[in-house]
Amino acid sequence: MTDTEQGSELLIETPAPGVRLLRLNRPEKRNALATPMLAKIAHVLEAGDCDDEIRVFVITGGDKVFAAGADLNEMAPKSGPEALADVRPGLWTKIRATRKPIAAAVEGWCLGAGNELLLCCDLAVASSSAKFGQPETNLGIIPGAGGGATLARVVGRARAMQMVLTGTPISADEALSYGLIAEITEPEKATVRAIELAKEIAARAPLAMQQAKAVVKAAFDLPHEAHLSFERQAFSFLFSTEDKKEGVAAFLEKRKPKWKGR
Asked: Which of 30, 81, 89, 193 is the most exposed place for a label (fewest CB within 10 A)?
């Protein structure tokens, strides 16, 4: 059963136990990520990170647009000093700092800040009609929230250069081959599939899921030897948890584990 809290720009749903769904809801603006919406996303993720009932997030948009970028009406009057003093970098930092896994479900256009929001997620499902791009250079600017720095780490230098320098969007098939998304579905099925994956994750040991996310993400930031050390520390930490004892016992006793998140 789905429990829905209606909001003007962000719909919050609970489609399954442990799963929190965030649905972008500015169809008249093609789900443009204006600062108030970005702040709501950051707030919901930050609050959910501290809620033991929530184990995984799903972010989705509409049937034809995931998010078409930042809000140009908000950007147009800003000067250089105003851009440097913007609150948005802090909001992006909060979103990227989410400890619990985040899945994205993409239908239609995923551009600019929308693609940067996708890059904050840990795995993504997209319909076959989805399109992805960083078209900021068409406006005489560049991506400013990971569309250069993170994108290059995900898809590689050459592909990131092509996407950013030309502004040309790529197809779902290309996004899959680039490693930008994990799966392709039929049109209008991406959210359903993302929720299925979220339910699988939510049914697993919560602390293990958080540590697994942290270890894989660290590949972007740490040299290999330091990364191996970090992985071993996370591995060893989990040996001190009740869930590790329960998981091993359940396996040996051939039963389903009962996770406690501690």
From this structure: 81
